[in-house]
Amino acid sequence: MPEQNVPTLYEWLGGIEALDRLSTRFYERVKSDALLGPVFAHMDAGHPAHVAAFLGEVLGGPTTYSEQHGGHPHMIRQHLNRHLSQEQRRQWVNLLLDTADELKLPDDPEFRSALVGYLEWGSRLAVLNSQPGASAEENAPMPKWGWGEVKGPYQG
Ligand code: HEM
Question: What residues bind heme, as annotated (predicted)?
Answer without folding.
Answer: 50, 74
